[in-house]
Amino acid sequence: MKVLKFGGTSVGSAERIQAVAHLINDNDPKIVVLSAMSGTTNTLVEIANCLYRNEKQTAFDIIQNLEVNYYIVITELFETEPYIQKGKKFVQTIFTYLRSFVNKDFYPLQEKAVLAQGEIISTTLMHYYLEERGIRNTLLSALEYMRIDKDCEPDYFYIRQNLERALRQPNTESLIITQGFICRNAYGEIDNLKRGGSDYSAALIGAAIKAEEIQIWTDIDGVHNNDPRIVKNTKAIRHLSFDEAAELAYFGAKILHPSSVQPAKKENIPVRLKNTLCPQDEGTLITKESPAKNVKAVAAKSGITAIKIKSTNMLLAYGFLRKVFEVFEAWKTPIDMIATSEVAVSLTIDCTEHLEDILRDLEKYGTTEVDENMAIVCIVGDFAAGKTGLGAQVLEALREVPLRMISYGGSEHNISVLVKEEDKKKAMIDLSHKIADLQSDETE
Ligand code: ADP
Ligand code: ASP
Ligand code: MG
User: Fold this and answer.
1) Measured between alpha carbons, how far is 50 from 195 in angstroms, rounded to an integer?
2) CA geometry: angle at 370 spanning 366 and 372, to 5°?
3) How far is the CA of 116 from the centre of ligand 3 (A)?
4) Is pLDDT above 80 for 444?
5) For atom 5 of ligand 2, which residue has the closest CA?
6) pLDDT tens digits, 158-200
7) Number of other CB atoms surrounding residue 80 within 10 Å
8) Cβ–ligand 1 contact at 229 (below 6 Å)
9) Residue 37 scores a pLDDT above 80
10) How far apart are CA 92 and CA 70, in angstroms?
């Protein structure tokens, strides 16, 4: 069985929903994971923000506008009156539910329920559309099987057990439509896998059922060798290893949710990225191994904060780094990059929710300095130990960019540098020229 995930733009209009329905109708058993129609989750976030700020009228107006847009989609999507009515009735229920929050106090728990409606609508519309076309399918609610634990990590056992149970039901069809992004938390409340989380849903489902393949269908022909939103003339990479893809996803390649490679890697399930707008394009295949290349790709992650802890006498003492790391652990804040010297250690974080607490606790071990608004630029390639020249060439390409930190040797396929946000674009463009040179020397 395969798992196919279609992102927001892939289901972003009535026409796109019809195109996806056509793509998935080939009699192969599959689980189809859908995102919300593009723009919907952002609008739901906006509604939630207005509700928090008690801007009732604005929230109400945004809800009305979104509802009207869905009625337009429905009239374009369905061909028969009964299905137009069925679609409208369903959408009306969702929007009545959203309006019910307008005159109440608003809490984070309710925000999660509001955000979940986008995927609930897109999957229901797809289910009805397939039904209207006479294509048998089962709409399976992700809230029945997708779950995170108290640490917001996937509850693998629960997911597998409940998904398998749903698949075993005698009335379950071989074409299953389900929601990405949404889940329940350890307390059974509606929650989500964070923005862009539908990729993660697909990977978790694929791993749970040991799928033959996980396909991520989006609006571009695979993972490109640099960020196409920032750099011109980027090219799709045909083959990546799980580790290379995980580095790129973690360090900012938006095409994949940061955690989405891990479940596939764990179960050794190939991940294929495909373009819905051009299904015949080859796309990118992610597997355990991939042919080595000097430099494969560059990605960048913004919103990074660097913290330097300076200690006059403690750094060399054993136990010092442990104490520093324990502070971050206590505040549940992951560290991305680290650089050490005899007198100081620098590290980066992307979540500043507990920055003040962390700094207060670190003061016990030394003086601290903070640099905000930084970016990590990550270069993925073949930096195997003992190989000469490549690291130097990468750094040479960055000669005009001030570097705050460098991380090399953490893995064999990554060099990361920390730069100021304002230097990120230049770093990525300069690296893209270097990649073009290096790749033109290599055969595909
Ligand atoms: P979806 O809605 O299908 O999940 P996303 O917008 O999340 O799609 O991801 C696809 C987008 O990711 C592309 O349109 C592209 O702009 C962006 N992107 C950023 N980095 C890369 C990259 N290295 N390769 C391909 N796309 C990238
Ligand atoms: N709809 C969610 C979002 O916009 C999840 C996703 O698209 O992957 O973040
Ligand atoms: Mg996405």
Assistant:
1) 19
2) 165
3) 15
4) no
5) 196
6) 999 999 999 999 999 999 999 999 999 999 999 999 999 999 9
7) 9
8) yes
9) yes
10) 9
